[in-house]
Amino acid sequence: MKIVYLGTPDFAVKPLKKLVDSGYEIIAVVTNRDKPVGRKRVLTPPPVKAYAVENGIAVYQYDKIRVEGVEDLKKLNPDLMITCAFGQILSQEIIDIPRLGVINIHASILPKYRGASPIHYAILNGEKTTGITIMKTDVGIDTGDIILQKETEIGDTETCGELFDRLSDLGAECIISALPLIESGKATFIKQDNNKATFTKIIKKEDAKIDFNRSAIDEYNKIRAFNPAPIAYTTLNGEPFKIYSAEIVDVSGVPGTVIKADKELVIACGSGAISLKKVQKAGGNAMNISDFLRGNKFNVGEDFI
Hints:
Layout: E1 2-7, H1 13-21, E2 25-31, E3 35-37, E4 42-44, H2 47-54, E5 59-61, H3 65-68, H4 70-76, E6 80-84, H5 92-95, E7 102-106, E8 114-115, H6 118-124, E9 129-136, E10 146-153, H7 160-184, E11 199-200, H8 216-225, E12 232-236, E13 239-249, E14 258-260, E15 265-268, E16 273-281, E17 287-288, H9 289-295
Parallel strand pairs: 1-2, 1-6, 2-5, 6-7, 8-11
Antiparallel strand pairs: 3-4, 7-9, 9-10, 12-13, 13-16, 14-15, 15-16, 16-17
Helix pairs in contact: 1-7, 6-8
């Protein structure tokens, strides 16, 4: 079975590696273009491309696969295409190319959390479980028939980065379980209930802004959901102030004001409070709160924002 694999970020590398290690014939990888990264804007390949190059797999890169990639994919003539966090929507013309169709590795239990940021939103909304769905791709956004699903619990303190890594591993396991069913014709295809669907948007920096008028649990979940990127933030003396981690504290006060400021820094929320654990002020480095408080003094009742 000749497979073309479409993926871009780190999340898509482990399933690709599992396919290669399991002996599947990956005839090509399709990914997005190299992009400038960091302050020096160094042109950097997507992680999936880096893995493919290291392992001698042909790489195709497109800004718009529906415009640039159709003829290349037809020439490759794959039996199956697998997408995983590819980041582009396929046209029906592309979906029709492989004889076994296109299947997708998606990081949620569909139909909940379709779209670009299912891992972030599962944590942001305080979900206790999430998982992986292997689905047959159609022209909609994560609307195709479900082939296989596997759930996993979300830890109470788990960050997006930590869950990202676990779901990548789970995605690798699930695709290996699904492929024999697809290849043998034994796969079942279950239609999604569109009435139960929820959608997630692309995460922007402003989504990570802390609102102390909301509950402590809401903002605690936000801090977890946006670690390692883009990092939850508020303002301190008019400058951005990043919060990497925190804990919920069962105390109350005026939202946005300091409740404790000696060995810990506790800020009141609309209900409850959060104790900051790792922070970064503008122009500084990320620091544990004990180190931060040695050089930065706060008064109880002080307005934090």
